[in-house]
Amino acid sequence: MTFDELGLDEQILNAISYMGFEKASPIQELAIPHIMQGRDLIACAQTGTGKTAAFMLPVLHHLVRNPHHGTSTLVIVPTRELAIQIEQQIQGFAYFAPVSSIAVYGGGSGNEWESQKKGLEGEADIIVATPGKLLSHINMGNVKFKNLRYLILDEADRMLDMGFYDDIKRILDVLPKKKQTLMFSATMPPKMRELAKAHLINPAEVSIAISKPSEGVLQAAYLVNDNHKTELIHHLIKDKPSFESIIIFSSTKKDVNGIVRSLKAKGHKVEGISSDLEQKEREEVLNRFRARQTRIIVATDVLARGIDIKDINLVINYNVPNDAEDYVPQNRKDELRADATGVALTLINEKEMRQFSSIEKLIGSEIRKLNIPAEIGISPEWKTGRVAQKSENNKHRSGKFRHKKKYSGDRGKASKG
């Protein structure tokens, strides 16, 4: 089903077309009609199924079609990383719409606190917030939710796991009673059912499973420090002419430009593609890549879905993707199709190990982890959770296990700012 068939406003359709979205994912097909009809919703959907678009596109449709004043939408999420990610996606979805948004989370500077305060006082149409920081603003009297129309709880089960149940209940108590509430959760434990029963009115329920990577794609990951990543890429491709078409995905425009400069200096035919380029310029870069005039293109994750190219030999994730949807190779349109063969590599630094472990859990598969060649440098040890685990090429190194502190999410930072 196309997004046009779902009845979305033209401004929203233009934005998602610009981003490269064409067809709705299963969770979007199931959830969007219910949300468009104004029903409360319980959706069981894991990260990687396109759930952000499932709840934001119909909400944006209503905000464009119906004039509003002040903050109309609140999205509550478990972590600052997810808050930032969703707010960035909202900016893309609302590119042609008169809708503003802001992310509210802990651990920032005084300037960020003031910016968040202005947004919460009604200057932003959409607020994406972590529970702890939002409660701090509520306690300081910075919140104006009297015109709130939509409440979205994303990764609700994860918020419970992190101990936010009471915080969420306190937040819900200060919100208007009349609103549309959407709850997205990978699982539905008893406490979630209790919360839904108390705050959702006759909700529709939908559920979807995560897609899996293609079995024909060889997947692996390298444990590497950031300063060795570009050298590793050069090492991997310099003497492999069979890799005729290579795409490197990075999380930031800054990294895209740096990767392009470094690979060009080593003699590779490479071009970058990011939002810094006009649409015509991006199409020209892609056309040269399709024609095999350019061997490598480097692109930001946000534009990954807009790249429609067949017969890619190698996909490299320069960073561990924030969203598993950006990891699963078969979800990258035609780069590595469900029936395709090819290689997908992810470069993991020490900070990204827990995130990558979560992706492995999500896709139900452990990815082979390798160390970088000794002539490049030394790989960090693979570690996730409490106990360090050795990568298969690192077993001869120190037998000591390293411990990692338990992640506490946004809690403990709520009073800072």
Give a written overview of the molecule:
This protein is α/β, with parallel strands linked by helices and 417 residues long. The protein folds into two domains: 10-207, Rossmann fold (3-Layer(aba) Sandwich), CATH 3.40.50.300; 217-388, Rossmann fold (3-Layer(aba) Sandwich). 34% of the residues lie in helices and 17% in strands. The chain has 13 helices and 16 strands. Strands 3-4-2-5-6-1-7 form a seven-stranded parallel β-sheet, sandwiched between helices. A seven-stranded parallel β-sheet has the order 10-11-9-12-13-8-14, with helices on both faces. Helix 2 (26-36) packs parallel to helix 3 (51-65) and helix 3 packs across helix 4 (80-93). The longest helix has 15 residues, at 51-65. It is globular, with a radius of gyration of 22 Å.
Topology summary:
Layout: H1 10-18, H2 26-36, E1 41-44, H3 51-65, E2 73-76, H4 80-93, E3 101-104, H5 110-123, E4 126-129, H6 131-139, E5 150-154, H7 156-161, H8 165-173, E6 180-185, H9 190-199, E7 204-207, E8 217-223, H10 229-237, E9 246-250, H11 253-265, E10 270-273, H12 279-290, E11 296-300, E12 314-317, E13 342-348, H13 353-363, E14 368-371, E15 383-384, E16 387-388
Parallel strand pairs: 1-6, 1-7, 2-4, 2-5, 3-4, 5-6, 8-13, 8-14, 9-11, 9-12, 10-11, 12-13
Antiparallel strand pairs: 15-16
